[in-house]
Design brief:
Largest sheet: 4 strands, mixed
Strand order of the largest sheet: 4-5-7-6
Structural class: alpha+beta
Strand content: 15-25%
Distance between the termini: 61 Å
Length: 186
């Protein structure tokens, strides 16, 4: 398969982020050949070892492809839904696994570890896994990061308060439940 045909296959099949294993299957070649093929392809970029992306990939798609399962959360999720004016230069990804931060196209991707039982409240949106706004708020309170923006999002009136309260209760944190009840009544 020629580079043009490979890239065209990715475009036609709406594949923006893929692994070396995926490329090997598409090319019907071994991993060694596929790695060399991808390294020579000027259109394809490497995120980290074994994970590649096309120019059509969003930073959110790339970020949630590094670890599975994972999802974009905190202020990055609020920005995704246009619930904050802040434009973070870091994409925050939540996972039950630890991973060191990376940089892709000048954007930092930070991975934050949470308990496996807190992996809820997210869905695939535009090719990336993203926390519901209410879950992003709970994650912010749980991790103690960007709490002022979490409270600002709650006070905006744009969140589903019942869902927010349910997510707070699922967190099992009395502090988060109390904070959510307090700000939801304002």
């Amino acid at each position: 398969m020629k580079t043009y045909d490979f890239n065209n296959f990715l475009l036609k099949n709406n594949i923006h982020v893929f692994t070396l294993d995926d490329a090997s299957r598409i090319l019907a070649k071994d991993k060694h050949y596929s790695a060399i093929f991808l390294a020579r392809d000027k259109w394809i970029k490497k995120a980290i070892r074994g994970i590649y992306y096309t120019p059509e990939a969003s930073i959110y798609e790339i970020a949630t492809s590094i670890i599975s399962p994972s999802y974009v959360s905190l202020i990055s999720a609020l920005r995704f839904y246009n619930l904050t004016e802040q434009i973070p230069n870091t994409v925050y990804v939540v996972s039950k696994k630890q991973h060191k931060g990376i940089e892709v196209n000048g954007t930092r991707i930070e991975f934050l570890k949470i308990k496996p039982e807190l992996m809820y409240g997210y869905a695939k949106v535009d090719g990336a896994f993203v926390a519901d706004p209410e879950k992003a708020v709970v994650d912010m309170l749980y991790l103690g990061r960007f709490e002022e923006y979490a409270l600002e999002a709650v006070e905006s009136g744009k969140l589903n308060y019942e869902k927010l309260k349910r997510y707070a209760e699922l967190s099992g944190s009395k502090k988060i439940i109390k904070t959510v009840k307090k700000v939801s009544q304002v």
